[in-house]
Write a structure and sequence with these properties.
Layout (H helix, E strand, L loop, with lengths): L3 E17 L2 E15 L2 E7 L9 H16 L4 H7 L4 H18 L3 H4 L12 E3 L4 H10 L5 E5 L5 H11 L4 E5 L6 H13 L2 E5 L19 E3 L9 H4 L5 E4 L1 H4 L2 H13 L3 E4 L6 H10 L5 E2 L17 E2 L2 E2 L9
Length: 327
């Protein structure tokens, strides 16, 4: 049996655009990996992220270089050491999981020894904008139980007050995208707690984690850019309360499940997040999201149009995928 790997670059329009502290975008560019062989087809999707030195071209090249190895019998277990953690391995790892499930005529969670997943509540993200615009967007989404607010610069407190005014009942979490300093966190944290904020993601630049040593954390802090895979955890101990597990950082579902288990064993609370992508990228993450303290798998909700057979989002949250999509 020979497996064939094909790679494709795809572009999806973002509804209304999307801005964080590092810049704004109007489209999401993703890379899809497809495995075909033995009567089954498996797919995976990733998002190359410039913050981690990734490009669409580089990720595609890395995946295409794996095609001969896949054809020669490379499997998912061997993949974990054949490629480094990151977006490229994520697409291929998830394609392997999907292919294995299709070939076995079973669901991925059965192959992984996991309980059947259920719908989980997910955050809805408000991108960085002027306070009045963020207030209007918050009011439009005030019915959602959890809103994630992109911050990271001058005027953050005004933005947050505007969001709270627009959505007085929603639980709020904020994502600073490495845009604060330790002094800024110390000044903003009590104010944000008073506004009902439950957690802040990555307030300081990755690599500046030591600035959190001994710093009071009235507002729980989550490691995002500072946490990639299990090797990241020792440096985060005592500095962070949560870790954000994203498949594009872990290099796929295989390491994401292992990271989640290791993080919980080490005393961290787990958030499961995503890049801006389609339901194909979110689908494997719904398995990791089971039982997580916080879930942020809203990527498809931010797009003008999703893939066919996309994930279902309703009052219960995001539902597990159907076999027509993945797994």
């Amino acid at each position: 049996m020979t497996l064939r790997l094909t790679v494709a670059r795809e572009r999806f329009e973002i509804a209304g655009g999307f801005a964080i502290s590092r810049g704004a975008r109007t489209h999401a560019e993703v890379v899809a990996a497809t495995l075909t062989g033995d009567g089954a087809t498996g797919r995976g999707e990733c998002v190359p992220y410039a913050r981690y030195g990734e490009t669409v071209e580089g990720v595609m090249a890395a995946l295409e270089a794996m095609a001969p190895l896949v054809a020669d019998g490379l499997d998912r277990a061997a993949l974990q050491s054949a490629m480094p953690a990151g977006a490229a391995r994520n697409a291929l790892d998830c394609a392997f999981w999907d292919w294995e499930a299709k070939k076995a005529g079973a669901r991925v969670w059965t192959l992984a020894g996991l309980p059947e997943p259920v719908a989980v509540p997910t955050a809805f993200t408000l991108s960085l904008a002027a306070p009045e615009a963020m207030r209007a967007k918050a009011a439009e989404n005030a019915h959602r139980p959890l809103l994630k607010i992109k911050l990271g610069g001058e005027g953050d407190l005004e933005r947050l007050r505007a969001v709270r005014a627009g959505a007085p009942e929603a639980t709020l979490i904020v994502d600073a995208n490495e845009g604060w300093t330790a002094a800024g966190y110390a000044a903003l944290a009590p104010e944000m707690v008073a506004l009902g904020v439950a957690m802040v993601e990555q307030p300081l630049p990755a690599g500046a984690d030591a600035a959190l040593d001994g710093l009071a954390r009235p507002l729980p802090v989550c490691a995002d850019e500072s946490c990639h895979d299990r090797a990241s955890l020792p440096a985060l101990a005592g500095r962070y309360d949560y870790v954000n597990v994203k498949l594009d950082k872990t290099g796929g579902l295989t390491e994401a499940l292992a990271l989640k288990a290791a993080a919980e064993a080490a005393g961290f609370r787990v958030m499961v997040g995503c890049m801006l992508a389609t339901s194909l990228a979110m689908a494997p993450a719904t398995l990791v999201a089971q039982g997580a303290a916080l879930v942020d798998l809203d990527g498809p909700l931010l797009l003008s149009a999703d893939r066919a057979h996309g994930l279902v989002y309703d009052a219960a949250g995001v539902h597990p995928p159907t076999p027509a999509l993945w797994g």
